[in-house]
Amino acid sequence: MNDPVHFVDEMLQGILIAHPDQLTTVDGNLRCIVKTNKEKKNKVGIATGGGSGHLPLFLGYVGDGLLDGCAVGGVFQSPSSDQMLEVTKSIDQGAGVLYIYGNYGGDIMNFDMAAEMADMEGIKVAQVIAGEDVASAPKGEEGKRRGVAGIFYAFKIAGALAGEMASLEEVKRIAEKTCANIRTMGVALTACIVPEAGRASFTIGDNEMEIGMGIHGEPGIRRGALQKADDIVQQMADKILADLPYEKGDEVSVLLNGLGATPKEELYIMARKLHEILKAKGISVFNTYVGEFATSMEMAGASISLLKLDGELKRLLSKPANSPFFTQVQL
């Protein structure tokens, strides 16, 4: 890093330099990122926003078949309502705008304000809040759960339907349906450092892990001695599968997400065990994503997300998409 105060803006400048054909700003505002090429008239615009430090969340999914814009906050900080409004105005093509974002207090407050201001400007806005982290609230209190890596599925599927020129109501419906069928759990092995703070956000022993820890260091459900990969995956899978619940005969998409400092090799070891568990339970896997989808600066750890599929979700998930951080051909 250079000066930590400039960390986010310098990062954004680098991304824009690297991907000028895909991403641009709204009137030069680095914190308001939109697609370089405008979509067709009367297409629903999809926007998100959130704190930096989680690449490719959130701006990494601005692209074809995905999101149209993103408001960017400081590290682990919500973007402002004014930034969100500027993104909203830029991506509105006459059919309204859908906000999809994580279940965090600052984001909810600022997105609500942005939606009210957009309404005064004649732009219809709908909102979907993602919260699928099973460790953050018990079953029956899903509305209190954090949104983590599984929000990727909402971006992908809602973006696919919006590309088919569906109405705002339909795009909101499919985003809500997607969120209702995702479950996630993570494990953290190390802390991370917020640049401007200059120190670790929490402490954890060299030979410890915390099951269920959130991407900002929020408490998990159990801290203890570091275990082998298979044992960790078994514990996470047991919690996830029991929560929806996922049952014999279901078909799922699997997402193995690294939190920033976990080698991809280790994620593939986890994927191997998870597939073994799912097969034993009679749950079929349609596809598997492995990589970094929602990180936490340089935190070591990983998360598992499962999306229960039906014909509609599977069709939309299969469609192509392209952004600086995620590309998919037709599955």
Describe what you observe in this structure.
The protein has helices at 7-18, 81-91, 105-120, 151-163, 168-180, 229-243, 264-280, 311-317; strands at 23-26, 29-35, 45-52, 69-75, 97-102, 125-130, 182-188, 208-211, 222-225, 251-258, 284-291, 301-308, 321-322, 327-328. The protein has 331 residues and is of the alpha/beta class. It folds into two domains: 4-180, Rossmann fold (3-Layer(aba) Sandwich), CATH 3.40.50; 182-315, Dihydroxyacetone kinase, domain 2 (Hypothetical Protein Tm841, Chain: A,domain 3, 2-Layer Sandwich). The strands form three sheets. Strands 1-2-4-3-5-6 form a six-stranded mixed β-sheet, with helices on both faces. The chain has a six-stranded mixed β-sheet with strand order 9-8-7-12-10-11. The longest helix is centred in the last third of the chain and has 17 residues, at 264-280. It is globular and about 55 Å long.
Top keywords for this entry?
single chain, 331 residues, alpha/beta, Rossmann fold, Hypothetical Protein Tm841, Chain: A,domain 3, 6-stranded mixed β-sheet, 31% helix, globular
CATH homologous superfamily assignment of the largest domain: Dihydroxyacetone kinase, domain 1
Provide the β-strand percentage band.
15-25%
Taking the alpha carbons of the first and last residues, their distance comes to 39 Å
Q: State the helical fraction.
A: 25-40%
Number of separate structural domains: 2
Number of strands: 14
Per DSSP, the total helix count is 8
Q: Could you state the oligomeric state of the chains shown? A: single chain
Category by helix and strand content: alpha/beta
User: SSE string, helix = H, strand = E?
Assistant: HEEEEHEHEHHEEEHEHEEHEE
